[in-house]
Amino acid sequence: IIGGLDSPSEGEVNSLGMDLKNTSHGERAELRRSQMGFIFQSHHLLPQCTVMENVLVPTLAHGQATAADEERGRRLLERVDLGDRLAHRPGQLSGGERQRVAVVRALINQPKLLLADEPTGALDQATADKLGQLLVELNQEENVTLITVTHSTDLANRMMRTLELLDGQLA
User: Fold this and answer.
1) Strand 145-149 and strand 113-117: pairing?
2) In sequence order, what are the beta bridge partners of 38?
3) Which of 34, 124, 148, 171 would bridge with 116, disulfide CB 3.0–4.6 Å?
4) At what angle do helices 95-107 and 125-141 cross, to 10 degrees?
């Protein structure tokens, strides 16, 4: 709901200054495109595209990817230790590498808000730890608000603020 992918059944939802309950589908899409990044539980990379092409997909909403977009993508991929994998396809990557590509893809348009749904859920502990640390670092370095939904207490403990949902109530 915060990301404007679903509408609330009641109440008010204000995300990045926009009342999401009283906006059109197009207005919510523009908000997502221009100010949000999403990291889904499953990376949702396009198997026929290279790592760099997957990273640049969100930039296509502006038209064609620019040289500046490609340079930012390259820098971010190097930051997540994938600088040597730009031409690889998702099937040639490990699960952790695919998830790191998804993180970079979510950051390519310099969002103000990054929403992550169980970003470490399908990863082994060591890879999950590295990705959790990376999210915290990128949150600070990119000056992006990070909202993470997780069952991992290790990941939750890395966050600046933690809220818990118990039996449908915010605790």
Assistant:
1) parallel
2) 115
3) 148
4) 10
